[in-house]
Amino acid sequence: MRYCINCCIHLLPNDLHRQCFRCRGPDHNNQKCPVCRGENKIPLYTDRKQMKWLAVLEVRTDHCESWNGFFCLRKGKLCSLMFGLIIMTLVMVSYILTGAKHGLLLIPSPFHYGAFASNPSLMDNESLSDMKDYYQPSKMNISYVKDYPSIKLIIDTITSKIEFITRQRPDLEELRKQEPHMFSVIPDKFLPNSKNPCWYEEYRGNTTTDPYATNSYALYSKRFRIIFDYLRKVFWNHLYHYKDKHYRLRCLPHFYIIGQPKCGTTDLYDRLRLHPDVRFSAIKEPHWWTRKRFGIIRLRDGFHDRYPVEDYLDLFDLAAHQIQSVLQSDAVKERGKRNNIIIGEASASTMWDNNAWIFFYDNSTEGEPPFLIQDFIHAFQPNAKLIIMLRDPVERLYSDYLYFASANKSAEDFHEKVAESLQLFEGCVLDFSLRACVYNNTLNNAMPVRLQVGLYVVYLLDWLTVFNKDQILVLRLEDHASNMRYTMHMVFQFLDLGPLSEKQEALITKSPASNTRRPEDRSLGPMLPTTKAILRDFYRPFNTKLAQVLFDDAFLWKRT
């Protein structure tokens, strides 16, 4: 059985197939041939019904003799090719424009910004959040070069620019102007018969009013709604009635665990809340002072409505109910005893995260924030106690990377991100003060890893400008891990907590560690030796200053 290869028609044994124009020879004229001109179209039928689209099927080939052996492309394929090229061109143009705007181009590397522009008008008229428009990309790209000497030059530049300058704390009136509502809610004095700072506030709602209807923590998070459902049920049982008015007990924390992230704050929180005289906020990390009061849930998601101070105080209602029960007991009323229950709050961002200032406080001094978190806490609670847990900043950074990185985690990737972050940090300190760079929201968001969180002494010195040294307890995670009983006793003594029974102490000190490294992260192994050497050099001058401030060489972390 034979077929014509040109039109797939079955041929008889002696058939030359003269109906096919290719079988007719060189004298065949395509313009005159009715078959080639399309006059003899054959409709295609399926299931005895004529098709309504593609109703005519023509099996033909184009005459390509003029190409002289070159590739012969049909019109459809040619159009597809041209369309594909146009799409590819548009994608590339979009990539180039978007990458140039956001610093995402791979070649050349944008991660080394030569400097923040030394533009006086920038500081007078624009915020630091606009500095990214003034960044100049460097010609050098060391993001993928694991060459210690090359990166060491960057670290030497940073080290040469380090100056620990004492900040000027704002006066109380300036703080009042910035947060008038907060000062109208929190009183100047607290109840004298309570160790924890508490006060009575008149409640003007009625029995049909939901006291937590507008609480932002309950509205924005499903996992907190169970807590507030319980608070609604018990709320009316804890109102204090006096002269036909209703009062509710409000409380602030007596102490704050203020930092740092990935330094064991969760473990300290879990153990400390087992003490019978310690209560915590209903949510472990409210992040109110640093984020929620500015309307930040996640900075990358933009701003939401600001959480008022009342929403923050609601988080301590469970503890306030217990304190109120003690205050109304006969022992307190008749024998003059005081409440010894204290409340803690454990947001690990409190010590270091002042990123939101740039969006709310305009009167900046050379790029430095005019107000910090500690200024406001001290204004309301000058006697507050602060607990800080630190660890080797080199290991902290790697743990932070493993915890927050979402994909493609590896020691090599960590090394590249460290190099890129160092380049960015160098670009900042060339033109601005160390404090301006540490609190620079744009820089902190641009760095692939959070180098700045490990600059402990910068933050500690700023806290010491408003709080006395005996109000701050600084611990090391390494000591806590090796001798937990000793560190917990230090915390109990610092907070003036009562003695514990052997059973209570064993429960607190022998519980398994909290928030340890995930198994999948352990399998990645340690960081590269070169990366560790680079970070040791970077953090060394900061650790040296920290050890001097605390009079403790253990904070040099030489043995880790």
From TrEMBL:
Q: Which Pfam families match?
A: Sulfotransfer_1
Q: Please, which domain of life does this record's source organism belong to? A: Eukaryota
**Domain Sulfotransferase residue range list:** 253-517
Q: Where are the transmembrane segments?
A: 78-97
State any GO BP term from the record: hexose biosynthetic process
**Under the GO molecular function aspect, what terms does this record hold?**
N-acetylgalactosamine 4-sulfate 6-O-sulfotransferase activity
For the keyword Transmembrane helix, the answer is yes
Alphabetical list of InterPro entries matching this protein:
CS_Sulfotransferase, P-loop_NTPase, Sulfotransferase_dom
For this chain, the family text in UniProt reads:
Belongs to the sulfotransferase 1 family.
Q: What is its EC number?
A: 2.8.2.-
Give the organism, scientific name: Brachypodius melanocephalos
Protein encoded by which gene: Chst15
Designated name of the protein: Sulfotransferase
Keywords, alphabetical: Membrane, Transferase, Transmembrane, Transmembrane helix
